[in-house]
Amino acid sequence: AQSEAQLAAGRTQQLAAESNLTTTRANFRRIIGSEPEALAPGSPVDRFLPNTLAAAIELGLIENPNVTAAMFGIDVSYLNVKVSEGALFPTLTLQANAQQNYDQSLAAPKQFVGSAVAQLSVPVYQGGAEYSLIRQSKETLAQQRLNLEQVRDQTRASVVQAWGQLQAGRSQVASAQAQVTASEIALNGVREEARAGQRTTLDVLNAQQALVNARVALVTAQHDRVVASYSVLSAVGRLSPQVLKLNTTVYDLSVHYHQVRDSWVGVRTPDGR
Questions:
Q1: Angle at 199 between CA 194 and CA 200, to 5 degrees
Q2: Which of 88, 86, 91, 89 is nearest to 119 (CA)?
Q3: What is the pLDDT of residues 133-171, one digit of tens each?
Q4: Residue 144 is assigned to a structural domain of this protein
Q5: What single-letter DSSP state applies at residue 212?
């Protein structure tokens, strides 16, 4: 009865694993765009990572996309301040006109008329709206600077967390490998004892289950180790096709810009749509 209970539990675990496999295949198809075929185990990307935690933090504070976006936000806010200050600057308008007349009935058959008008406008008082907008822009700039510091702190925490998970993953793989080796030796010993009549069939099944659990733990640790290495690579801002040298087409925004920069009229896209 105990053996039958173990068998039923094993079948339950098998059905749950098959359900998870079906879900994982569907997610793979949704993300990758093709069915999972001839897959190979993933490998860590330690070769692209910094050697120390300090180097990883320094790199993350420079190349992390969130940090880069926050720095660009400061630049935009600074330019908005200059634009707002431009409302207080004088405005110079220059207008020129030239006219050439030909008329045989006049005493002077050829007549040229030219004029030029320059107008200088200096804002004196306009209700204070411009000054208020300048102060608002400066406050926004200060807010963006504080946001940059917050993003840097978040990035530093993400790098440290991912680095710690990577180090733990390495240790877990070594421990799981030792557990598998010990479980294999234990299973062989239980089988020998069972042949001598000192162990029961249930003891052999329990030893086999322990070995299976150890192998599952090893695969899980290897998976977590690979994911942790990619997490560190993402935290430092180097998770890109160029760094990983993937055989795929990389989007180049400069190509699209040069295709449309001279299109003053028209609604068609570069591909003809």
A1: 95
A2: 91
A3: 999 999 999 999 999 999 999 999 999 999 999 999 999
A4: yes
A5: H
CATH number of the domain where residue 103 is located: 1.20.1600.10
Cβ(187)–Cβ(208) below 8 Å: yes
Residue 169: both structure tokens together: 């993953």
Cα 44 to Cα 173: distance, rounded to the nearest angstrom: 12
- DSSP 8-state class, residue 145: H
What backbone phi and psi angles, to 5 degrees, belong to 41?
A: -60, 140
In a domain, 33, yes or no: no
Q: Residue 105 pLDDT > 90, yes or no?
A: no
Give the type of residue at 156.
Answer: R
| Collapsed DSSP state (helix, strand, coil) of residue 19 | helix
SS3 125: coil
C-alpha–C-alpha distance, residues 145 and 177, integer Å = 48
Beta bridge pairs of residue 92: 120
* Domain total of the chain: 1
Q: Amino acid identity of 190? A: V
Instruction: State how far the Cα of 198 lies from the Cα of 194, in Å rounded to an integer.
Output: 5
Map tokens 């700039």 to a residue. 141
Give me the domain span that covers residue 97. Answer: 43-245
Give a yes or no: residue 172 inside a domain: yes
* For residue 273, pLDDT beyond 80: no
Within-domain flag for 105: yes
Determine the Cα–Cα distance for residues 20 and 28; give it in Å rounded to an integer: 12
Model pTM score? 0.77
